[in-house]
Amino acid sequence: MDLQKHAQPQDGAPRVSELRASDADRDRVADILREALAEGRLTADEHAERVEGVLHAKTVGELEVFIRDLPAAHQRPAAPAYTPVPPRPSPGAIPAEADANVVAVFSSAVRRGRWRAGRRLHAYSVFGSVEIDLSEAIFEYQQVVIKAVSVFGDVQIRVPENVSLRGTGGGVLGNFEVDTLDSVEPDAPVVYVDGWAVLGNVEARPKRGRRVADILDRVQDKVDRKLRKHLDR
Predict the structure, then answer these.
(1) Cα angle value 143/90/111 (rounded, 5°)
(2) What residues contact 38, with CB distance under 8 A and at least 6 apart?
(3) How many CA atoms lie within 13 A of 190 on its CB side?
(4) Mean pLDDT of 203-213
(5) Nearest to residue 120, comparing CAs of 137, 97, 92?
(6) CA-CA distance, 158 to 156, in Å (whole number)?
């Protein structure tokens, strides 16, 4: 059976979601297929065929086709509803002064690993390259603004898959590209990338397979620390 053909909408079939599939979505479907093989619901050939389809699926709707006839697919909790991204911070809500600057002039600069992301970060690349990797960063604020300016240079920004990502900017004989991303978690961080690329490149997108964990715990920890600081006064 050509399962890929059945991934397209048909008369009477449920409407296929157009949301892009993440690595976490593919892993979830692969786990269900693996269990179905162990239970004897699928033959080895059927399992191999479906796994191959999962690896090439681009949307959540295409993934669901490969487990639609398996009981486990209908026993999982319903996916959380998408919530609107918080409105963009009003002028003055976030200080104009950056918490950190990453600058590369005829050189390279990198910020990655386990680090605390402030409310505002500035990245400047002049005949150089800047890499800002937020995939393992600790978000202490829900809204983070990154100002990225590239002049004959390159600025690469990577974020976890379960945050929201927005961009405002442009290019002058250059490329300014920010992949719009919406998180299903209402308290997930929102990263805004603003800037310009002048004969250069500014690019922001999610890093596949990397996710922010324990967002609510981090927010609660921040609240607790503020409360203790207030009580100690």
Answers:
(1) 35
(2) none
(3) 18
(4) 80
(5) 97
(6) 7
Amino acid present at 94: I
130-140 pLDDT, tens digit per residue, is: 999 999 999 88
Q: Which of 190, 166, 191 is nearest to 179 (CA)?
A: 166
pLDDT in tens, 78-112: 555 556 677 777 777 888 889 999 999 999 999 99
- Look at residue 119 and tell me whether its pLDDT is greater than 70: yes
126 forms bridges with which residues in the sheet? 105, 151
Rg, C-alpha atoms of the chain:
22
Q: What angle do the packed helices 44-56 and 23-38 form, to 10 degrees?
A: 180
Distance, first Cα to last Cα, the chain: 70
Question: What strand order describes the sheet that includes 154-159?
Answer: 108-111, 129-133, 154-159, 201-206, 175-178
Determine the Cα–Cα distance for residues 118 and 185; give it in Å rounded to an integer: 20
